[in-house]
Amino acid sequence: MGSTVNTCLNTGAWSLPTMAATATCVATCPSPPASTGGTATLNPSTGPYFTSGTVQYTCPGGTSPSTAGSDLLTCNSPNWSPAVGPLCATNCGPPPAISPNGAAAPAGPYIITFSFAYGCATGYSLRSPVTNMCQLSGTNGVWSVLTAPTCVRDNRNLDLVFIMEGNDNVETSTCSQLETTFADTRPIGPAGVLTSTNFPRFFQQQTFLTHFESTWNAVTQVKTRMAVQMHNGACANDAAADANTVRLLRSNIDLANYWMTTNEYRCGTATPVANLACANTYQFTVLNGDTSNQNVIIFALPDVLTASGYNTLRNIQLQGVDGIRSTLPPIFTVSLLQSTDTNYAVNVDYAREFACGTGMTTEAQCPRFLGSIFETNTAVNVLAAAFPAL
Questions:
Q1: Is residue 227 located within the same domain as residue 249?
Q2: Nearest to 267 by CA among 230, 236, 240, 293
Q3: Which domain holds residue 136?
Q4: Would residue 371 be called left, alpha or beta, if left means φ above 0 and alpha means ψ between -120 and 50 degrees?
Q5: Residue 209 · residue 161 · CB < 8 Å
Q6: Does the residue 9 lie in any domain?
Q7: Has residue 126 got a pLDDT over 50?
Q8: Does 118 map to a domain?
Q9: 171 versus 255: which is more confidently predicted?
Q10: Banded model confidence at residue 142, pLDDT cuts 50, 70, 90
Q11: What is the pLDDT of residue 269?
Q12: Which of 110, 198, 223, 377 has the smallest number of CB atoms closer than 10 Å to its CB?
């Protein structure tokens, strides 16, 4: 008879099990699969590769595994898990940098899936958070954000109260007509976009406020806070102010969402003196969210040549404001007219006097006129110039 050979199979069994009395057969895996992309080194570099054993791949310099964990294979005899070697992808280069006033990006290497959040130098902020990630494209890493964001100078932290204009003939002939019609007619669509000519000045005030919040680089209700109060006829006390308040300084109500979901328009004959005094005593309190920030009132004015409560009474209204001016924080005014309106020039003069005092009609005398309600960026720039960042 010829010799009989018993072979230890990679399954861990002998080919002739009845002759296996003198040795132990251990399951193994074949040589591990090679990496793709860059050529990785293996540890251990040679077999045998026993079941449950592992092989660690190390990608060459400048590359990294395309998927976390793909560089470690485990022998589950007779197969490897994962079944393929890693892809050694080229790392990303340095990320796009913010210049100027950006915080330095973290140091590399920038391997696949490396991510970081952009930041700014002290005194500057991003309009919104931006995260960049090194992502796989073929066998190379590419950044998810190819253009660095911009760091914008922080605006001064302020406590702002915006007094919305509600006047009985600004949009309709009577308040009751306006309030009734407004309850049924919503001239805005998704995201607060104006879709109708109904009540354009009232809704433009809403657009102004939501745009102002997104443009002024500190309105977070943590830094700069903004309250909104409707100008609804007389305002005799805190209860009246509370009834006409859309948002307190301490509130986090989303204004865009509020305008979309709340059918409310409060309207009455203009009484600016009472509303200024009312807003000052009610809104600027610790209970309602006042902080150590500079207090500011922004007052919306209609066409004072035609709006009831102003037209023939506008000089009397101005004298009344002059009488309480010393008790109020700085007043800034914004006109409900477009800057192309034929009455705009006269309204600008009055708005400056309203903000700074009778006779103060030039920009040099009174730089506290924010412009037209239709030009938010101009308003932001004027307010920023008045209160430079500290």
A1: yes
A2: 230
A3: 91-153
A4: left
A5: no
A6: no
A7: yes
A8: yes
A9: 255
A10: very high
A11: 74
A12: 377
Supply the pLDDT for residue 2.
47
Contacts 24+ apart (CB under 8 A), 24-32: 26/50, 26/51, 27/51, 27/77, 27/78, 28/75, 28/77, 28/78, 29/53, 29/75, 29/76, 29/77, 29/78, 29/79, 29/80, 30/78, 32/73, 32/80, 32/85
| End residue of a domain, out of 133, 153, 173 | 153
Beta strands in the chain (DSSP E): 28-29, 36-37, 41-43, 49-50, 54-58, 63-65, 72-76, 79-81, 87-90, 115-117, 124-126, 131-137, 140-143, 151-153, 158-166, 225-232, 245-247, 294-301, 331-335, 369-372
**Cβ-based neighbour number of residue 352 at 10 Å:** 21
Mean pLDDT, the chain, rounded, equals: 83
Confidence at 10, pLDDT banded by 50, 70, 90:
low
Total number of domains constituting the chain? 3
How many whole angstroms separate alpha carbon 336 and alpha carbon 202? 8
Domain termination residue (choose one: 65, 87, 109): 87
Angle at 375 between CA 374 and CA 379, to 5 degrees: 125
3 state DSSP class of 137: strand
Chain centroid to CA 123? 17
In DSSP notation, 36-58 reads EES--EEES-S--EETT-EEEEE
138: which 2 tokens?
């073929």
Residue 269's CATH number: 3.40.50.410
Which segments within 154-269 are labelled E, that is strand? 158-166, 225-232, 245-247
Distances (CA, A) of 176 to 173, 302, 384: 9, 18, 38
Say whether 225 sits in a helix, a strand or coil. Answer: strand
Q: Are residues 285 and 235 in the same domain?
A: yes
